[in-house]
Amino acid sequence: MSGNLFDLSGKVAVVTGANTGIGQGIALALAQAGADIALVARSDASETVGLIEGTGRRALVITADLASTEPCERIVAETVSGLGRLDILVNNAGIIRRNDATEFTEDDWDAVLDTNLKVLFFLSQAAGKHMIAHGGGSIINIASMLTFQGGIRVASYTASKSGVGGLTKLLANEWAGQNITVNAIAPGYIATNNTAALQADETRNRQILERIPAGRWGEPSDLGGAAVFLASDAARYVQGHILAVDGGWLAR
Known about the structure:
alpha/beta, Rossmann fold, 7-stranded parallel β-sheet, 8 helices, globular
């Protein structure tokens, strides 16, 4: 397999939640592989812009709050207007709420399902329409260990990430014939803002590390290679797959 199969030169990627953490790590990796990046964020993304421009690629910031579906069509339109095309969508933006199942509120349920699942679908729909009309593309969803497992005290997050796995397969089934690959990455325990509470909990942190064969928390950069692969021609016959990048967590 020649190295140029992983070359994303001339491609444009949308990465949601790209201002920090996993989104930033993936956006940088795609840029290093040659793609220009539309960064979707609701807060300052200047750090990510600097990293991308440091690779010689273009960065476009699209300010949007993905708590609702309202920005979905606009994100696609602004990407095409600003960068000329849309080839890759990375659905990374997500939120988490923690509480015992007996105390979990409807507000916390709705907020997480809306951002993590509903908006993911409708942004994929908007991007998918464009990709179908322009010859194809790649969609990468960010799943979770809780796509496979139940978790504790994260009812809506578990439900949403289980749904992400299902939607990844459904969209692959519907769009594979349109030259669109749809796959997901399931990160293990990655050191980000979303996992800060777990990292700070001495007991949970120890329990987590004891189970990870690699013996450490992952870094956002650890997901970059998987994203480049799934966005590239090297993965043109990979469909509906959920790729765990977890330091061996699921193998334990």
